């Protein structure tokens, strides 16, 4: 217990010291919400690693490896990382040039004010709230297992710690601490993997005693099952705002690409480990154990506290960085897309900072309510991925490449795709709702665009080649605007 207590107290003292420092330094809403578009290579690399290694890696992916084997990596982790790398490689330059805050900001600038409302709702409430709730529940579970704190009290304590840090320093403090925490996260997961191999009596014994379907990349169901699962997960990461925030926060387009690819390259490698740990755990963990308890069982019951404490600190780091990022994602939507764009466009800096911090509180409060009241947060999270993907991916691609796309077509496409995705399961077919959702989104956007005209408040641009007005209007002193290039 002493080891765990020492590690935990030291970790939170460090976090709040960094938060307090940046509380005195961060004076503008741009710095608070988007790190002033001014973060360097190592900070962006570290924050990408940390943000992608939250509760999903330490708890979810270990449990998935235990349940379905190494095919889980090819179903979930690999497509998520590859689509994220596609986003960074092909879209970082045009997105970074636009000086944006959020995905909804892009839609509002291209299609008009109304087009940004639905993406803001999805990002802030459908995605950010349940994902933050997952981190809160994960942290409370750790407090329960290690310190025997009842779950209800643990949720309240986790909420207070996460909110306290996030509200202090904003995205700057989050990215700076993420860069440091990424080392802790990697050390923690590597130590756990080495320990699992030792408890499994080495690779030779593990391979000999593990059923082939748990070692195969295709699993028990074969290639079609892996591909269908991957295609329902991967496209969401083209519109995952956590990655967009890191692109926007980068000091230059070059940093956004190099740091992004480096960070995701590391994630691509270390993401193998939690699945491997889950598979190996079948050698020495009761096979009827709940998958979400595998991580804590291996760490607390089998490791010496001096080592287990480092692994737990890695998990706390992952949970904190995930929660911070998701809260700031939702607060950016509320503060920028709703308050500054729709409610008070002439707000001064003091008002914008107040709105930003108030938004952090609102998203955090909603997340803690979900943590207390929802019994199936993971199911809610999976639906958030589906709905966000089917409603936003096709309109995003239209923004980037098709000048003919119209605002009314975008709104109808998002609305009808969301409705179809939600209602499709009631038809009791074997087809995943993501596929009809994408089909409706594409059909409606193209069809309606061809028969409607652009509204007066639209910026008729193919943003991959042409710049929106924000590319110059939000330019920092000393920056040079990029001239629009027609396709």
TrEMBL record:
InterPro entries: Na/Glc_symporter_sf, Na/solute_symporter, Sodium:Solute_Symporter. It is found in: Cell membrane. GO terms for molecular function: symporter activity. Its main location: membrane. The keyword Transferase does not apply. It is a multi-pass membrane protein. Keywords: Cell membrane, Ion transport, Membrane, Sodium, Sodium transport, Symport, Transmembrane, Transmembrane helix, Transport. The chain crosses the membrane at residues 6-23, 44-66, 72-91, 124-147, 153-176, 183-203, 223-240, 261-282, 302-323, 354-374, 380-401, 408-427, 433-451. Belongs to the sodium:solute symporter (SSF) (TC 2.A.21) family. This is Sodium:solute symporter family protein.
């Amino acid at each position: 217990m002493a080891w765990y207590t020492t590690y935990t107290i030291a970790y939170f003292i460090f976090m709040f010291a960094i938060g307090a420092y940046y509380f005195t330094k961060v004076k503008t809403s741009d710095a608070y919400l988007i790190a002033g578009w001014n973060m360097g290579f190592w900070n962006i690399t570290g924050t990408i690693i940390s943000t992608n290694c939250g509760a999903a890696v330490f708890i979810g992916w270990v449990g998935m490896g235990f349940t379905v084997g190494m095919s889980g990596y090819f179903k979930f982790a690999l497509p998520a990382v590859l689509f994220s790398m596609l986003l960074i490689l092909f879209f970082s330059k045009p997105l970074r040039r636009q000086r944006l805050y959020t995905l909804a900001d892009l839609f509002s600038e291209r299609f008009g004010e109304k087009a940004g409302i639905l993406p803001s709702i999805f990002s802030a409430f459908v995605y950010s709230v349940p994902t933050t709730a997952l981190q809160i529940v994960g942290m409370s579970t750790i407090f329960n297992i290690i310190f025997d704190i009842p779950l209800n009290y643990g949720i309240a304590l986790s909420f207070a710690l996460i909110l306290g840090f996030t509200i202090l320093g904003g995205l700057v403090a989050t990215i700076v601490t993420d860069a440091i925490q990424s080392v802790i996260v990697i050390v923690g997961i590597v130590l756990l993997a080495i320990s699992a191999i030792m408890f499994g009596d080495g690779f030779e014994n593990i391979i000999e005693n593990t059923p082939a379907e748990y070692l195969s990349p295709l699993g028990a169901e074969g290639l079609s099952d892996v591909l269908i699962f991957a295609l329902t997960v991967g496209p969401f990461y083209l519109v995952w705002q956590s990655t967009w925030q890191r692109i926007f926060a980068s000091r230059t387009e070059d940093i956004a690409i190099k740091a992004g690819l480096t960070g995701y390259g590391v994630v691509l490698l270390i993401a193998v480990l939690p699945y491997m740990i889950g598979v190996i755990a079948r050698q020495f963990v009761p096979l009827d154990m709940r998958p979400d308890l595998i991580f804590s069982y291996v760490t607390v019951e089998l490791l010496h506290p001096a080592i287990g404490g480092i692994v737990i600190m890695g998990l706390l780091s992952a949970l904190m960085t995930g929660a911070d990022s998701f809260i700031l994602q939702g607060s950016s939507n509320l503060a920028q897309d709703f308050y500054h764009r729709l409610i008070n466009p002439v707000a001064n800096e003091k008002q914008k900072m107040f709105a930003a911090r108030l938004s952090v509180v609102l998203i955090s409060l909603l997340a803690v309510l979900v943590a207390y009241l929802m019994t199936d947060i993971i199911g809610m999270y999976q639906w958030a991925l589906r709905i966000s993907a089917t409603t936003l991916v096709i309109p995003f691609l239209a923004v980037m490449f098709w000048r003919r796309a119209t605002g009314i077509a975008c709104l109808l496409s998002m609305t009808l795709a969301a409705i179809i995705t939600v209602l499709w399961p009631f038809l009791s077919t074997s087809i995943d709702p993501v596929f009809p959702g994408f089909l409706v989104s594409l059909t409606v956007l193209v069809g309606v665009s061809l028969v409607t005209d652009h509204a007066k408040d639209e910026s008729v641009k193919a943003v991959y080649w042409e710049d929106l007005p924000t590319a110059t209007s939000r330019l920092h002193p000393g920056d040079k605007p990029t001239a629009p290039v027609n396709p």
